[in-house]
Amino acid sequence: MAIATAPTAPVGKLARTWETAPGLYGVLATVDHKTIGKRYIVTALVFFLAGGIEAAFMRTQLIHSNVHLLDAEEYNQIFTMHGVTMLFLFASPILSGFSNYLWPLMIGARDMAFPRVNALSYWTFLLSGVFIYTSFLIGQAPDGGWFAYVPMTGRTYSPGLNIDFYALGLIFITISTTVGAVNFVVTFFRMRAPGMSLNRVPIIMWGTLSASVAIIFALPALSAACVMLYFDRRFGMHFFDAAEGGHPLLWQHLFWMFGHPWVYIIVLPAIGLASDMIPTFSRRPLAGYTFVALSTVTTAILGFGVWVHHMFATGLPMLATTFFSAASMMIAIPSGVSIFAWIATIWHGRPVFRTPFLFLIGFIVLFVIGGVSGVMTAAVPFDWQLTDNYFVVAHLHYVLIGINVFPVFAALYYWLPKMTGRMLSERYGRWVFWLMFIGANLAFFPMHISGMLGMPRRIYTYQAGLGWDTVNLITSIGAYVFALGVLLFLVDFFRSLSVGPEAGDNPWDAPTLEWSVSSPPPPYNFAVIPTVRSRHPLWEGRLDEEYHTLIGSGPVLDRGRETFGTSALDSDPFEILQMPEDSLWPLILAAMMTVTFYGLLFGVWWLAILGLVLVILSLAGWCWPKLVREDEMDLLPEEG
Amino acid sequence: MAMVARPYDLPISPQDRRAPGRMGMMLLIATEASFFVYLLFSYFYLASMARGAWPPDGNNPALRLSLPNTIILIVSSGTMWWAEAGIRKGQQARLRIGLLVTLILGMLFLAIQGLEYSNQSFTPATDAYGSLFFTITGFHGAHVAAGLLMNIFVQARAWAGHFTATRHLALSNVALYWHFVDVVWIVVFLSLYITPRLG
């Protein structure tokens, strides 16, 4: 059998084929998933800092009774933007960043399924974030909380542009998230290297796949709600207007039909990241791979059936709240399965306590605390007692910091060396971890107590003598300690770029394919497309397994930007996919969308229509085939 | 599967049902369909919460224009199918004619819907029912318009001779989208025009 092996793969030719063009054009037109992934991560971290600064303002305001650093309206804008930023501009995009960067490297592909859609996803994320943040320039940032309940956010009580920025900004960002999700799903089912059957993919793939499917079905609820809110405000419609046959609870239903799946959208990929890192530091494969994968998918599905637990206090019928209460408690089961799988992995392993592993332990601890307070608030009478007070704030921060931020920081310490080629400092890393871990607990545990003491969330100041001063002081100190940890991380990161030790291909002795290529990886990812035979391609020798993943020998695919298209279950290659070149269209399209949204925001209809026409023309320009008549592709030279 | 012995024996980006672009279009349709599900959820939710008659003025939406219009859209799905079946056999003329007829039928649908809008006794700002009626049918109309723009785009490519019997993925995707727009209309029609008569 004539095997197209390449003892010396033509790496020069591959590099020329896959390189992004030099200069400004390349910067704006690149479709390289690695560049896009890094941009996602950096942009999301910038928004994380912005959200952190907003949090620092809030904690300074609340450090003591009767502080008036911000007035009530400013405080409303700050806490709303903190929520919007952290949930929409940090928590989800940073995970998209990691998935974008890692997926093709983990699955032995040369890019995502739709590289130009990938670029569009990034540019729309960036521009929608900028769109929302320009509200500060005219002093009218969204001020209705991140869930913007009507009627307070209706035209009557909120006549400014604040909520228009919110509604349109969120519609804008759903475009980014949705096209990104489509890209992940297709990549999952078509782009895996030969032999990487469904039971061999890293858990992050399951996490992001589950999240992406949830995005496809849940995000339209947010778009629909925001469209209605905008129509009510701008055109005097009555969706949420009880006087004219509308209903304010319609907003809450639609928002939480989106909102609760969103919680899982921003934690499942992070859980996946953690599930892929824990084995590396436990020096053994993940215990219960199948159960972790299934519980990930199950959580995403159950997440669609629990939205009413955000609405227990709205007077819904008891039967309905009981059902949703039971469904919410059921989520503890798959979460528990995953937690026990991680504990079993560590228990039966030989743990190595490096910085990423510290963050992973912190993640498990915070996950358990946040999970327990979650089961508590899932009980209807308990929830009635605590709705809209600081106990809920404590719960949601334990969940989001525990299951999103901590795995993300573990992942930064773990995968940044792959991206930059330089290790971060272990000494700094320990300080970063302990500052963030102690800070988080110091900040958020006392919030349980301030909630029990009756402190409502979202108040901009409070009177002395209510017994809230001490807990708030502790919370604020905790927040500053946490912030110090984040700043120290930034110092460590910039330091590492110049003085960090060289990472080498596989600094953690990890099992998955991304560690088989250089750090940073070459533009073509793999000189030879690997043929995968197990879940742990780089650990096969020592695991006594008789599998032999082929790395470094096999098909090269060097006649253009090419990678395999493989079958959904078994990953049998059935086609060679030609991947697109650099293109300016994604950026142009995103820019034209921005024009449209500003037109809608200010009610400048000619501008909105002009933007829309340009969006249509950009799409046509994008889709028009560039080089050849499609049938000519059939005439490509055949070589043996 | 053994190692890929002769990778270049595999077809290069074949435009069959397994093509990534096909899957992408199906997922786009899934998310758009969800959007309409949430709009219709809002319709039925507010209908169930209504204290008086639904529709509020007691008049069910008229079938005089909407029923023929429904038939026009269903027929246009048929002509689109006929066009696509044509190019599968390599028949360029049938493709072009089919697309053109579909385009005309689609424009006719929008024109009749515009006529119906101008005949309505209420506006989107009259009450929540008016908001729902115009938003749901309006978003559907926007999807028809999007389908027509796609039609114009692939029609230009059809006249430029881009499509062959085996390579016409863009056309198949546009056809799929058009059928989706058609199905959405049937559901919208049943929800807005027929269910109020069943009560």
Would you kindly provide a brief summary of this structure?
Chain A is an all-alpha fold and 640 residues long.
Order of helices and strands of chain A: HHHHHHHHHHHHHHHHEEHH
Order of helices and strands of chain B: HHHHH
The structure class of chain A reads: mainly alpha
Could you give the count of β-strands of chain A? 2
Kindly state the number of beta strands of chain B: 0
Average pLDDT rating of chain A: 93
| CATH class category label of the domain at 61-194 in chain B | Mainly Alpha
Rg of Cα set of chain B: 20 Å
Describe the structure.
The complex is a heterodimer of chains A (640) and B (199). Chain A has 640 residues and is mainly alpha-helical. Chain A is 62% helix and 2% strand. In chain A, helix 3 packs antiparallel against helix 4 (72-107), helix 3 (33-61) runs parallel beside helix 5 and helix 8 packs parallel to helix 11 (332-347). Chain A starts with 10 loop residues before the first helix and ends in a 17-residue tail after the last helix. The model of chain A is unreliable at 1-6 and 629-640 (pLDDT under 50). The mean pLDDT of chain B is 94. The longest helix of chain B has 32 residues, at 128-159. Chain B has five helices and no strands. Chain B is elongated, with a radius of gyration of 20 Å. Chain B is mainly α and 199 residues long. Chain B has a domain at 61-194: Up-down Bundle (Four Helix Bundle (Hemerythrin (Met), subunit A)). In chain B, helix 1 packs parallel to helix 5 and helix 2 (63-88) packs antiparallel against helix 3. At the A-B interface, helix 6, helix 7, helix 8, strand 1 and strand 2 of A face helix 1 and helix 4 of B.
Provide tags for this entry.
heterodimer, A: 640 residues, mainly alpha, Cytochrome C Oxidase, Chain A, two-stranded antiparallel sheet, 18 helices, 62% helix, 2% strand, globular, disordered C terminus, B: 199 residues, Four Helix Bundle (Hemerythrin (Met), subunit A), 5 helices, 0% strand, elongated
